[in-house]
Amino acid sequence: MFEMKERAGLGRIGELRTAHGVVETPALMPVVNPSNLVITPKDLARMFGVQILITNAYIIWKSADRQRFLDEGIHRALDFDGPIMTDSGAFQQHVYGRVEVSNEEIVKFQAAIGADLGAVLDVFSEPDDSRRRCEEAVEETLRRTRDALEWRGDLGLVGTVQGGLHMDLREHCAKGLSDIPIAVHAIGGVVPLMEGYQFADLVDVIVASKKGLRPDRPVHLFGAGHPITFGLAVLLGCDLFDSAAYVKYAQDGRMITAWGTTRVEGLAHIPCSCPACHDATPEDLRADTERLAQHNLYVSLQELEVVKQAIHEGNLWEHVERRCRAHPSLLDALKGLRDHVDFMERYEGLVGGTLFYTGPESVWRPVAHRFRQRLLKRYSPPRVEGVLILPEARRPYTRAYSKLLRTLFERANAHAIVRSAFGPVPVEFDGVYPVAQSVVPDDLDLETVEASEVLLRQFLRRGYFSQGVMWEGEDSLEELSIRAPGPSATDMDKQRAEALANYQFGPGAADALLEGEVEYVKSKKTQKIRNVLVDGDHVLSMRARDGLFTLKLAGGKRLHKALPAPKLRVVVNEESSPSNREGKNVFAKFVVDCDGELRPLDEVLVVSETDELVAVGRAVMNREEMLAFERGVAVKVREGSPLL
Amino acid sequence: MFEMKERAGLGRIGELRTAHGVVETPALMPVVNPSNLVITPKDLARMFGVQILITNAYIIWKSADRQRFLDEGIHRALDFDGPIMTDSGAFQQHVYGRVEVSNEEIVKFQAAIGADLGAVLDVFSEPDDSRRRCEEAVEETLRRTRDALEWRGDLGLVGTVQGGLHMDLREHCAKGLSDIPIAVHAIGGVVPLMEGYQFADLVDVIVASKKGLRPDRPVHLFGAGHPITFGLAVLLGCDLFDSAAYVKYAQDGRMITAWGTTRVEGLAHIPCSCPACHDATPEDLRADTERLAQHNLYVSLQELEVVKQAIHEGNLWEHVERRCRAHPSLLDALKGLRDHVDFMERYEGLVGGTLFYTGPESVWRPVAHRFRQRLLKRYSPPRVEGVLILPEARRPYTRAYSKLLRTLFERANAHAIVRSAFGPVPVEFDGVYPVAQSVVPDDLDLETVEASEVLLRQFLRRGYFSQGVMWEGEDSLEELSIRAPGPSATDMDKQRAEALANYQFGPGAADALLEGEVEYVKSKKTQKIRNVLVDGDHVLSMRARDGLFTLKLAGGKRLHKALPAPKLRVVVNEESSPSNREGKNVFAKFVVDCDGELRPLDEVLVVSETDELVAVGRAVMNREEMLAFERGVAVKVREGSPLL
């Protein structure tokens, strides 16, 4: 059973429950070779805080230890109390061409030795396998996974996505596995990609698999043991990793770092202060394989803590963009994410701290993509005489700049748009996440400058501004200021509120929310809107942190009346609605349906199956997740709608 | 006394000798506040391996402890055996507007308490100080530094470069300080730049200072205590750092990381495994300021070890390019390095491992700049019917690609140039550092693609290829192959050797080196040239690692005869030449003069003051360094020229 606790897009911090305890994900499972324990399982738990480990059931099955594992059970045989995953021999099939065990034998064996999680004997596809061959491997893998249900006992099954580099087969395999009641999904056949630095292909494979996999099960990226890929894989929704690398690299005299690998024979300084490295000399690491293995494990585990903290702080993208500078092939993988932005955007719910631009790739983060898409689809500019295009500024919306725009807006009947690295920004959005919270270099690279120009033209071409004159640059300000005065400050509040309402809730929302006598309660200090009252009712608030509206119950009622289902709706069953009416959160298992346009952190209407408004709140999941998850909060309710 | 042990351009690993021991640089000096010891000096040495610390003499002078420090001496008073640097109160002048001590008083006090290194009371310039004011500050600083000579006793003086943001004043101040016999140079007035994230200005200030400073003294970047800037500052030639940040940040609840700062109240995971963090919970770090300060110091010291190892491995540029993605203002600073590439190139001697492209900034590394400059100045293409421009490849010179080019070259009377991210590469250079050892992404960003095109046109415009037809792309190969056959394989070796000889040693070198009966000894496996014999003499070898020639004595004799002084010469005095003739290295203190065009790692002719050839070898320093340094090797001699 898996629960999502925190998220950053597809990336998540979760809890995986097993009979031997709870694992916090993303988690690294050290590979333990029972016949050659470089670090004992007991020490893995005690010294390294390892929560779960993985070993190879096929190797045990083939060894002299087989009977001992059957007699004692795997936990006693390995002297480890926590959850244990076992592998089936599928990887040995890749290495040696064949295995001597059947799916039935190995699944039954894993159940018999009492593994918590055990892999079906999937069929490994090589990256250069033909489509035909991969199809066969996928169908056989699916058949074996279904077969395994019969023999599993208490074993949580691990079902592996295969399909080689045929992305439609990956997605097909993943969909097939989603329909089978297993515990963990794995993505297999990727070790050759990592060995060959084919990280762009690895990204495509993970995304194709994730597209087909149901989102409520943890995903194990088989064989990814080097921390160089952890951040990227977590960003794409991988939850479990296994590392044999910590030992294998050490035995080969290689020191793992978060940005690569260093041969210990070339070590003159110790670029680490983990318990194994602190006080160590280069000679110590050269002479002591166990110590080097300890370092390799510490640095690998540490990278996952860095990743988790980045999820928690809301800067996982920045972390991944930095880490992808570790190798040009990782940079290719990062650039390749642009191809998947539409899929990733569905899961994006990031409202973090400041957005840091790290390079031209930053412009294509899902959060920026969504901003542009919603502007294009949901925003209508005011009818004015013309539009002024202002140059990009480092922080487009510093207070001074904002004041300049306000003056312009109040004194001339014109509209203004600012070029930004992330795309054009109409003046109404001068405080809105993500652009208002972004920091970009003064000196932007050519690719971003051109992208910004293309995005601006695309935006203007949609015809919004065809009605007026277009001025470029700050020099035009004087020309504008001699024109007839434009809307008043109050009109500007109105326009800002209308623009934002439609942007957040869709076309028509502004008319519904703001019909009547509107009062804007503003911050004395910043003159920014804080609350919106209509006919005396508190309809909307504005969060200072991201400049976005939060929905009050009175606002929810207006939207519910004006916008037809399924717009903005999260439909809950009868078991849930009474507590939601009392203001309690919506749990995913009670969700019947959900508007497919909603994204994590969007404001939502919680309704009954007969479309009565039950509450307003903020989504934590998207539609796919609400319908799949059995555990966890789907909507954080802000205000319930009590039955009168 | 300072000695350079290893280098990466301006960056260096050095040894600073003091009466209380040797310090390996780059080094971080923790700031110790005697009246509030968060970590005792003893623990700094014992737990953290700190070699040198810094404290503020002005604060001690003002305190009740003054007499105790005078009586006991600073080493006993602080209970620290190693070298101690003291500051003068100049920074307090910045913070409080004035100080209550005179230069004479504070210099004498520092000498009296027995500090190893002590700062002159320089005049702090603010970033927005006028030119006039900065001029006065610089002149007063220089006057005080000269004055201090009288009072210094055994104190090694620290003289600080001021000048605000007026770069010519910075250089002028630095030149003035270079003429005064002090021990350490410092760059001051930079804390406001770091506090304001003005890292691009910081880069300009460091470079302007370094241009004026003699290279044989260590350079202390005053107030740079956050590891986020260490790599960049070392790359620009800074050797010493001081950190009060480890304590101050801790007292303010901030955890330092190599990529930024995290508030401990927002800490949910521990992104570190240093001795202070290993086993710690977020709550531990929130509750225990000392523990947090320990972490902050561990992570700061660790970053310098990472930097030193990067110098040792030859990938400091990659490290800095990655770290500069920590903040958009650091990215601006990285982009700003392009303005200083000519200065940096003079010090560049990097032949490391593989060159990793991390973004459009990588194209402007000094090592790539030198490659392009030397091609433009020293390379003459063969007279052929035309030139084929081939598209860039991921690794431009994979074996297959190389074979294709060779075939083309042998079968058609044409020449070929490959576009690369780093600039155009004539076919003769298909194994030469840095392009042949570079890895770039498949998907290059627009800025690099355009830069590559501009560089190609610039190269072609020089007229080299005006004599022939120009073909573009691989499609032209067929057209070419039906033309008359071109030079034979032997001719190709000849052309390759000629091109490379002129590229490395300058125009005319090929004629001098290769006149006579030439034999190319080639690798059986790769068919690459290994040795060049002329008239039976071994003239040149080729290093497999970087595809460059090394000079044998017979070759040196030919160059010495053909190229007039000072070309390629390092002139040594009479004391040195006998041992150099025996094959011993040239030490900098014996160098009388040096060709200003030579760069670290260039092949050189060691000659006597009467221009007799004494030895051939490889430079370790450039001219400025050879003339300045009193310690260290200037030329690694390969072969001496014994007196007959």
What does this molecule look like?
With 644 residues, chain A is an alpha/beta fold. The first copy, chain A, contains 26 helices and 29 strands. Chain A has an eight-stranded parallel β-barrel, surrounded by six helices. In chain A, strands 25-29-28-27-24-26 form a six-stranded mixed beta sheet. In chain A, helix 10 packs parallel to helix 16, helix 12 (245-251) runs antiparallel to helix 14 and helix 18 (366-378) packs across helix 22 (489-505). The interface between A and B is large, with 52 and 51 residues.
Feature tags:
homodimer; 644 residues; alpha/beta; 8-stranded parallel barrel; 26 helices; 39% helix; globular
Largest interface: A-B, 52 and 51 residues
Number of strands of chain A: 29
The average pLDDT of chain A is 91
Largest sheet of chain A: 8 strands, parallel, barrel
The radius of gyration computed from the alpha-carbon positions of chain A, rounded to a whole number of angstroms, is: 28 Å
Taking the alpha carbons of the first and last residues of chain A, their distance comes to 38 Å
Helix content of chain A: 25-40%
Low-pLDDT stretches of chain A: 394-399, 481-485
Portion in beta strands of chain A = 15-25%
List the topology elements.
The structure is a homodimer of 644-residue chains.
Chain A: E1 2-8, E2 11-18, E3 21-25, E4 27-32, H1 41-48, E5 53-56, H2 57-62, H3 66-72, H4 74-78, E6 84-87, H5 90-96, H6 103-112, E7 117-119, H7 131-148, E8 156-161, H8 167-178, E9 184-187, H9 191-195, H10 199-212, E10 219-221, H11 230-235, E11 240-243, H12 245-251, E12 254-257, E13 260-263, H13 282-287, H14 289-313, H15 316-323, H16 328-336, H17 341-347, E14 355-356, H18 366-378, E15 386-390, H19 399-411, E16 414-418, E17 425-426, E18 438-439, H20 446-461, E19 469-472, H21 476-481, H22 489-505, H23 509-513, E20 518-522, E21 529-534, E22 537-542, E23 549-551, H24 553-562, E24 569-572, H25 577-581, E25 586-587, E26 591-594, E27 603-607, E28 613-619, H26 623-628, E29 633-640
